[in-house]
Every structure is written in C-alpha cells, then in structure tokens.
Amino acid sequence: MSEMSQSFLAKSTIKAADLEHRKKINFNIGKYNSVVPIGKQQFSALETARERAKNLKWKAISQLDKHLEDFEANFTKRGGKVIWAETTEQALDEILKICKAKNCRSIVKSKSMVTEEIHLNDFLEKNGIESVETDLGEYIQQLDGEPPYHIVTPAMHKSKEDVAKLFAEKLGTPSNLTPEQLTLVAREKLRQKYAEAEIGITGANFLIADTGSIAITENEGNGRLSCSYPKTHIAITGIEKVIPSFTDLGLFWPLLATFGTGQQVTVYNSIVSGPRQQGELDGPDEMYVILLDNGRTNILANEKARESLYCIRCGACLNACPVYKNIGGHSYETTYSGPIGSVITPHLKEMHEWKHLSYASSLCGNCTEVCAVKINLHELLLENRAEAVEAGDASFSEKMAWKVWKQASLRRSWMNQGSGSLKNKIVNKIFKGWTTHRSELNFSPKTFNQMWKEKRGE
After folding, report:
1. What is the pTM of this model?
2. Class in CATH terms, 42-294
C-alpha cells in the first residue's frame, strides 16, 4: 500500500465519522440541489445540449494541437504572449521571470484551480512576493492556511460561524458578524490590493481558438478586476480548456452556470483577447497566457482516459458523489477531488501512488448521470483500476483473493456449498483487506438455485 493510500484511508476514516462536518456539507449541497433543477429549466432539450457539448469537446480534444496553435496565432496578433509549459517547474520559472522583470512585490489572484495545482502561492511566498486570493472563498481558505475544499466552492465545509471566528482571529473583527458584514470586511481589505499589485493572475474557463481569447466566468467581479487593473495580466490554464469557436460559449456558459451553481448564467462573464489596444481606456499593458501540460498529454495519449479532458470543472460530480459527501475534499489530498479528481489524478501524477482514489467510489454512476458534458466517470474509474492491475500495482494477496473469488463465482456447485451464515464467516475472515474499511460481505441465506426451485415448485 502506497504512502498516499495510507494517508487517504486515515484521513477519510476520521472525516467520515465527523457528524458536524457531514451536517455542514449536506446543508450546503442541499442548497445546491434545490436550485440546479430550476436552472436546468432554461434548456428546452437538456440532454441534447449535454450531448452537443460533449461532441464539441471531443472535436476540440481530437484536434488539440491545431486548436492550440490557432489560439496562439490569434492571441499574439493582438499583442499577447503565449508561453508553453510542460511541467509545474517550467510554469513557475516563467512566472518568476515575469515577476522579476516587472520588479513585482504584490500580486492579486482570482480563483484558479491550475494555480492550486502548481502550488503558486507557496512558490511566490518563498520568493518574497505577496499573492492575495481575491475570490471570497479562496480568501477565506488562504487566511486559514488551507487548500480549496471544492473546485467551485472552496470553503464549502465552513459555516458562517466558522468564517466569523476566522476573521476575528486573523483580521481582528468582532466574532458575531453576519455574512453580509463579513463580505464587506473582505471587500475593504481586498480593494486596496488591486491598486497596489503590479501583476494580476487569473485562470481561464475556456480558451477560444478562432478569436485567440480567454473566457473567465465568476460571480464576484474579482476576476475582472484582477485581469484589468494591474499593468500585467498572466492567465494560467490547462491545455484541455480550448474550444473551437467563439459561438460555442453560447452553449458552454449556460451549462457551466447551471451545473456549477444552479444559475441560468454566472454574474460576470468576461472575454479577454490580449493587452489594452489603442483607443481602449482600461486593461493591462502586457498579457501572457501560460498553457500548461503537466501530465495532460498522458491523458490525451490514453484512448480510454482521454474523455476526462472534456471536463469543464462545474463540480456537479462532487456534489452528487456519496463518497465525497462523507469524506470531504481534503481527504483526497490532491488539487482535484471527487470523481473527476479520482479519474485524472493517477494520470497526472503516478498511478502507483494514486490508484487508491479510483477505488474511493461506490460505482453508483451518479457522477456520470449529473456530468454537464456526459463523461462516463464511473466507467473511467473502472478503467483506472484495470490499468493499475495490468501495470502490476496490485499486491500478491489481492491478486490471489480475486483469483479465488473468480473461480468460485464460475462454479455454481461451489457457490451452493454451505449456508449463508457459514459463507459469511469464511469469506469475511479471508477477505480482511476488503472488510477493514467496508462493511462485511453478506451472503443470502438461500442460494439462487434454492430460491429458483422453491418458486418453480421443483
């Protein structure tokens, strides 16, 4: 068992027994569940919209090299600069070069899971550069020294009382502030940071190939301020975010809003096509887009796993997953949690170290059912398990246990031997690795043959 697997089991065991945590998550996800069906009503043919979105992402990923080159060519025509980063280290080095060239000491940053993936804030801090999260949820998590809990709602696991207590400890505010008052405190603290920052950093929800633009979706306006107020704007994004055409946003933006937060459309939708042009009144003097690989081409090369690159990061699969709702986002110990994280992390990192995430699923299929672009997530989890076994990442005892189970399942005479209670005792004693973190296997008191004969009167 890998070190990460042991850590995951330990943390998830503790979190699953935390009833207060479960209460907060069920409350917050319950609010999501109440509004998403309302948001879906804007689609006259929802399943057709999801299918069309999946086909568009298939088109984009199947011709990824062409679309990325088109994006680069169109973006650079307007004075933007594109940087290709194969690894985390390359991306961080390029960002540091830009910071040094601009004599940067302060950065404002909007919500971006890719910057979490490369641990940008820690890197900048080590190099003496202040990086301030301007999304309210991310700001709360930064104050608390925690990574995001959820890919859409970073502080989902915190109640309003938790946030009030955190602000009192870190910012010296009264401990009984309301959510509205807490928001005003954060606004006051952050507004000054925009004026001080030399560089603004954002992610990108979509890369638009035919116009050379990035599309940013948010609810607070902080992303728009981060990319327009500082003199330099850096957008960091995964290469899989590309879509072929500007007109595709008419489909993807409503899908992302509805499946992400239940809205018909997100409050702020921005399209940025480069630095400030002649005659324009606002915007940065310079703009860079860093296209990050960081293992994504490993997924692209895998014919079966490639489908996971269609993901638009709406977070719907996390909200639907019974495992995620019990063990929480931090138990996964990776940037991308929940079903989609369990699918892509073993390919972005090392299968041997992270294969355990693909077993953190009931395979109920709810993640596939709710996916905005109809990714077959539960099937991809099974594919990951199969790849891990084929690669030899299974213990001898595990292999032997399944071999015995297979042989017994193929022989009806074996399965008919003994009573259900006797089988339960034998099997649960042998398969201790299974029952350590799961409920015991429970055989039916009667075999199928017995029930068949009784029903048929034989």
Report:
1. 0.91
2. alpha beta
